[in-house]
Request: fold
Amino acid sequence: MDIRFESAGASFGARVAVEPLTLSLTEHRLGIIGLNGSGKTTFARMINGLMKPTTGKVLVNGKDTREAKAALADVGFIFQSPQNQIILPIVRDDIAFGLKGRGLSKAEIERQVERVLSRFNAEALADRRAHELSGGELQIAALCSVLATGPDILILDEPTNQLDLRNRVLVQKTIEGLEENVVVITHDLELISGFERVLLFHDGKLAADAPAAEAIARYRELAA
Ligand SMILES: Nc1ncnc2c1ncn2[C@@H]1O[C@H](COP(=O)(O)OP(=O)(O)OP(=O)(O)O)[C@@H](O)[C@H]1O
Ligand SMILES: [Mg+2]
Reply:
C-alpha cells in the first residue's frame, strides 16, 4: 500500500472537512479515529477517489485520484451502512456482479464467488437475500463482494457499528486475518488497539499520527 497525500485537503463549499495534509501511508494496518464530524469518512473517500481533493493531490499506488473517473479499482470500500452497497438481492449474485465486465467466463466468475465465500466460511450466505441478513452477516457479505474484485487496499468505515459481541469478534478476526492492506475507521477503539499507526482527526486536522496507545490517549484527552 502506498498512499500519499500532498497538501491534499477537502472542502464542501466554505466548510473545510479535511485541512490540507502531507502524509505517506505504507503500513499494512492503519486506524482512523476521532469525534463525529471530524473528517474521517471524507479522508477515507479521498483515498479511493470518491472525494477528489479540493486542494493538493492524493496518489494511491502511484495513481493520481484526480485523474480517475470513478473510484479506484485498487481500493475496496465498505461503507458506514453496507446495506447501501449491496446491489443485487441475492448474495451470490451481488458478489458476481462486481466481477462482470472483466472478460471472465461464467465458470470463472462462479469459481471466484465460491472462493471468496469459502475464505470467510460464508457459503451458507450465498443463496440468502441480502436484505434479510443480520448486521454481521451483511458485513461479511459486503466484505466478500468487495474482496472478490481483488483490491490492494480495503477501507472499512465503522465495520463493527451495530454488531453484537459475536459478530464484532468475527469482524475483528476477519480484519486480523486479511492479507490485503486495511484502513479501519472506527469508534470501537479496541478494534484498532494493536495497530502500529493510528491517525486521530479533530476538526478536520490531524491531532495525532502515532501508535494506537498514544493516539487513543490523545483522543481521550480531546474528547473529555
Ligand atoms: N456531502 C457533504 N456535504 C457537505 N458537508 C459534508 C458532506 N460530507 C461531510 N460533510 C461535512 O464534513 C465534515 C466531516 O464529515 P465526515 O463525514 O468526514 O466526518 P466523520 O469523522 O466521518 O464523522 P462520523 O464519525 O460521524 O462518521 C462534517 O462537518 C460534515 O458535516
Ligand atoms: Mg464517518
